[in-house]
Amino acid sequence: MITMENVCKSYKVARRDSGFGQAFRSLFHREYEEVQALNQVSFHIGDGEMVGYIGPNGAGKSSTIKILSGILTPDSGTCVIDGRIPWRDRTEHVRHIGVVFGQRSQLWWDIPVMDSFELLKEIYSISTPQYKNKLEELTRLLNLEEILKTPTRQLSLGQRMRCELAASLLHEPKLLFLDEPTIGLDAVSKLAVRDFIKKTNKDHKTTVILTTHDMQDMEAIAERVILIGRGQILLDGTLGDLRQAACVDGELQEDSVNLDQIMAALYQKLNIM
């Protein structure tokens, strides 16, 4: 399904001291610093896997997802998804992926949700029978019937996220990227979203890559966890492997009673805070 081998990506970031003088000077002479976002990143993800891709802010998660989705081209290394190179075969590639960003919307703000779905139908060239069958399934599973005629801007956050999930799955993608899909949701909405994601994976064998700082999401959804820090893969295994990696002298730290505390201890141990 997904193979990344020795992928590297760096950025040039402009730097200057504060003050009007430095701002004026930078108009004529700008200094740059090279930031290594990804450094020899390699992993393989099989069909139907549910993988948590985690790490602290600035670890390289977003750069990886952008390369996998075809938005970015790496400096070096290879990435192949179902025989396609994402940034070279982008038009074909996007037909097979779905993306949900917790802080960004793919729905048009001022029109009813149903109109957004109709636009996505045309964008992805979904046949009418396939669209009707999939919409009926998603409406039932996500309980959307009462909100399809409502403009996106009038939806609550929980309602909007359910619609975002539906929008990302209308074209039946084989690969689903989830970036903070439950951010800001109440407990009931979180449980509903988690259950739906697991059911989608079970029924349609959809491969799921989840990036989140919510360790409860990770525990509920992911079967495998890849930890990245400072642009390098530091661990690839199960949540049990994460707990073991956070051990000090063979035992968990005394105050590490939940997954959030375990992750904080692990970040500190690996010096990737």
Question: Summed up, what is this model?
Answer:
The chain contains ten helices and nine strands. The chain is of the alpha/beta class. The protein has one domain: Rossmann fold, CATH 3.40.50.
Distance between the termini: 31 Å
What's the overall geometry? Answer: globular
- Give me the CATH superfamily: P-loop containing nucleotide triphosphate hydrolases
Beta-strand proportion? 15-25%
What is the H/E order? EHEEHEHEHHHEHEHEEHH
Range of helix content: 25-40%
Characterize the biggest β-sheet. Answer: 6 strands, mixed
Topology-level CATH name: Rossmann fold
Q: What is the typical, i.e. mean, pLDDT?
A: 89
CATH class: Alpha Beta
DSSP summary: helix tally? 10
The number of domains: 1
Helices and strands in order:
Blueprint: E1 2-15, H1 20-26, E2 31-45, E3 50-54, H2 61-68, E4 76-81, H3 90-93, E5 97-101, H4 113-123, H5 128-142, H6 157-169, E6 175-179, H7 187-204, E7 207-211, H8 215-221, E8 224-229, E9 232-237, H9 239-245, H10 259-270
Parallel strand pairs: 3-7, 3-8, 5-6, 6-7
Antiparallel strand pairs: 1-2, 1-4, 8-9
Task: Provide structural commentary.
The protein has 273 residues and is an alpha/beta fold. It contains 10 helices and 9 strands. It has helices spanning 20-26, 61-68, 90-93, 113-123, 128-142, 157-169, 187-204, 215-221, 239-245, 259-270, and strands at 2-15, 31-45, 50-54, 76-81, 97-101, 175-179, 207-211, 224-229, 232-237. Strand 6 (175-179), helix 7 and strand 7 (207-211) form a beta-alpha-beta unit. It is globular, with a radius of gyration of 21 Å.
